[in-house]
Amino acid sequence: MHLFWEHGYEATSLAMLREAMGLTPPQIYNAFTDKETLFRKALTRYHETEIGFALEALSAPVSTREAIRRLLMGAAEAYSRPGKPGGCLFVSGALAASPQAQAIADELKAYRKASEAAIAQRLAKGRAMGDLPEGVCAEGFAKFVAGVMNGMSIQARDGASVEELRVLAQTALAALPDEGQNQGASSKE
Amino acid sequence: MHLFWEHGYEATSLAMLREAMGLTPPQIYNAFTDKETLFRKALTRYHETEIGFALEALSAPVSTREAIRRLLMGAAEAYSRPGKPGGCLFVSGALAASPQAQAIADELKAYRKASEAAIAQRLAKGRAMGDLPEGVCAEGFAKFVAGVMNGMSIQARDGASVEELRVLAQTALAALPDEGQNQGASSKE
DNA sequence: CAGGTTTCGTATCGATCACTATGGATAATT
DNA sequence: AATTATCCATAGTGATCGATACGAAACCTG
Fold first, then answer.
1. Angle at A23 between CA A22 and CA A24, to 5 degrees
2. Model pTM greater than 0.90?
3. Percent of all residues in chain B with a pLDDT value above 70, rounded to a whole number
4. Which residues contact A105 (CB under 8 A, 6 or more apart)?
5. SS3 for A128-174, per residue?
6. Is A2 exposed, middle or buried (0-12, 13-18, 19+ CB in 10 A)?
7. Is B144 on the interface with A (CB under 8 A)?
8. How many CB atoms lie within 10 A of CB B169?
9. To the nearest whole angstrom, how far is the Cα of A109 from the nearest Cα of chain B?
10. DSSP code, position A101
11. Which of A98, A161, B37, B151 could form a disulfide with A151, with the two C-beta atoms 3.0–4.6 Å apart?
């Protein structure tokens, strides 16, 4: 998973995987069928172990603004974990691919689209609950948030620290009006 | 350039380039030395022909906010041009790379860093001119703007239309307080 | 302890990668 | 017009890709 995360699907060779896992080629193929299946296994593992913050943030019983704040701050932390490759596997895995790896690229794109859809759904819920400001469109703002997270992924890959990513997240959050509810512009936010 | 833009450095094979350019392998190597040099040529060509909007936006004699607006709107248009690969070559070219292509990945990273530095410089100028709101840090906000542009690049690659990217850009712009100058919250903007 | 079966690592498969040596066609010179 | 020189496309180079065939070692059964 770390190798795919770091180098992407195509640039990760079986030789690298073999050495990292300490397995012989037949063992790898017995266990994972082929490289593509292995990558998909890594994808689901990544989804389960590395980005739980997203589901947590979007399903927590908090205000919409707080949910988005947790989402962005969680991304800042998850994309810059020490000892882990920077950024998000869904972005780094195969942004550009050769024609024969198009299926993998499409699958990652589907993951990204699903993330955006989940954000949009949470915003729509906020709209229904009435704590999403009138001026913001759920789908449009979801695209913004998803875009910012993708951008954070690249910034992390370029070496941005967790603090810098938090500042970026906080800046993005300023695009969501406060609705003037119970929490004012207190201390740090 | 289009092939590298679409598939990235490593996933673009000499066979694809050969067919696209209608040249034989020796012709390619006579003209461009090797694949790496050819890619660098494509990079500079891309820089010259596709993203002039950035330099224009940052050097135009307009307010800082307007400069950033033009930058983001220019990106929205440039990243979704019909007939061109979506997104930005500097992002798609080699986000993740195999160890032997690390030099290419580093070069693209340097381009991205340079873009961010150019934004930071423009914001610092705005600070000096006094039209950058007190609350925003030039470096931090530059990282935000660069990150949003990178995110737009990925959204574009995922099929976002120019209108959707414009909405994203406009949303990001909301993170920059208006400073309450001559232009009010009129009509559209 | 012998025989048959299964497992597993090595060595290699064909395909493709970036890249280049060589033979044939063209052009220049006498 | 004959000969020499130059260019250039085809064919092939070693290396590496993902994926496997085969021989050896281990294990259970009789």
1. 135
2. yes
3. 94
4. A94, A95, A96, A97
5. HHCCCCCCCCHHHHHHHHHHHHHHHHHHHHCCCCHHHHHHHHHHHHC
6. middle
7. yes
8. 25
9. 6
10. G
11. B151
A79 vs B contacts (CB less than 8 Å): none
Structure tokens, A124:
């729509």
- Residue A180 banded pLDDT, cuts 50, 70, 90: low
Cα(B164)–Cα(B47) distance, integer angstroms: 24
Q: Which of B10, B112, B172 faces A144 most closely, judged by CB atoms?
A: B172
One-letter identity of residue A105: A
Which residues of chain A lie closer than 8 angstroms to B13, CB-CB?
A: 98
What mean pLDDT value characterizes chain B?
Answer: 94
Residue A167 amino acid letter: V
Rg for chain B, CA atoms, rounded: 19
Question: Residue A164 CB closer than 7 angstroms to strand D?
Answer: no
- The reply to whether B39 touches chain A by the CB within 8 Å rule is no
Instruction: Return the H-helix or E-strand segment holding B176.
Output: none
At which residue do the structure tokens 């994309």 appear?
A79
The closest of A152, A15, A23 to A90, measured between CA atoms, is A152
CB contact under 8 Å between A113 and B158, yes or no, is yes
- Is the CB of A36 inside 8 Å of chain B's CB atoms? no
DSSP character at residue B166: H
Does any strand D atom come closer than 7 Å to the Cβ of B25?
yes
Query: Token pair of B158, please?
Result: 């995922």
Here the tokens at position A51 are: 């980005």
Q: How many CB atoms lie within 10 A of CB B113?
A: 13
Q: Which nucleotide is nearest to B18 (CA to C1')?
A: C18
**Percent of chain A whose pLDDT exceeds 70:** 94
Give dist(CA A150, CA A109) in Å, integer: 12
Yes or no, beta carbons of B96 and A146 under 8 Å apart: no
CB interface of A with B, residues 87-126, below 8 Å: 91-99, 101, 109, 112-113
Reading the block at residue A178, the tokens are 């406060």
